[in-house]
Design a protein that fits this description.
By secondary structure, the protein is mainly alpha-helical. Strands 1-2-3 form a three-stranded mixed beta sheet. Helix 4 packs parallel to helix 6 and helix 5 packs across helix 6. It is elongated and about 60 Å long.
Length: 149
C-alpha cells in the first residue's frame, strides 16, 4: 500500500469527483508525470485501488479499535482500562491527518496512551486489579478504582 497521490485523491473527493475508471487513469498518469513511480514499477501491479480519505468519524472508530487492543492486553494482566469519549476525541484531534491516514493516529496512540501506561506499569503505579484511565490532557495513566473480585 502507498499514500502516493493522497493529496490528489483528497482534492478530487472535495470537488465531488468519482474515483472510477477515468479518474484512475488520470491518477496513474499524474503519478507517472510527477515521477512518483516508474512505468516499469506500475506495470508490476495487478490493480490500483483508490480509497477516499478517512473522515473524523471513521478515525474515531479506528482509534476505538486501537484502544480495544490495549484493553485486551491489560485485561490479560488483570488490569481494566477504561476509555472515555474525551480520550478518543483528543487522540483523533491530534492524530487525524487526511494525507497520512491511520499511520499518524497509530503513532499518537503509541506516544500518548501506550507510553503512559507502560511508564505507570514500570513504576508500579498501576497493578493487577486496578481500573485505569489515561487523562487526555496530561497524558498520565491514572488509577480510578479497583476491580471487583
Amino acid at each position: 500500500t502507498s499514500n502516493a497521490g493522497a493529496e490528489y485523491i483528497k482534492e478530487a473527493v472535495e470537488k465531488g469527483s468519482s474515483l472510477g475508471g477515468d479518474f484512475k487513469r488520470a491518477f496513474t498518469d499524474n503519478l507517472l508525470k510527477r515521477g512518483v513511480f516508474t512505468p516499469e514499477f506500475l506495470n508490476r501491479f495487478d490493480a490500483v485501488s483508490l480509497y477516499r480519505p478517512l473522515g473524523s468519524e471513521e478515525m474515531k472508530q479506528v482509534a476505538g479499535l486501537m484502544l480495544k487492543d490495549i484493553q485486551r492486553g491489560l485485561a490479560l494482566k488483570g488490569i481494566e482500562f477504561r476509555v472515555g469519549d474525551a480520550l478518543v476525541e483528543k487522540l483523533v484531534q491530534i492524530g487525524f491527518d487526511p494525507v497520512f491516514g491511520g499511520r499518524e493516529l497509530r503513532r499518537t496512540v503509541q506516544d500518548n496512551v501506550e507510553n503512559a501506561i507502560a511508564t505507570a506499569l514500570l513504576s508500579r503505579a498501576i497493578r493487577r486489579g486496578d481500573i485505569v484511565e489515561v487523562d487526555p490532557y496530561t497524558w498520565q495513566a491514572v488509577v480510578t478504582g479497583k476491580m471487583k473480585p
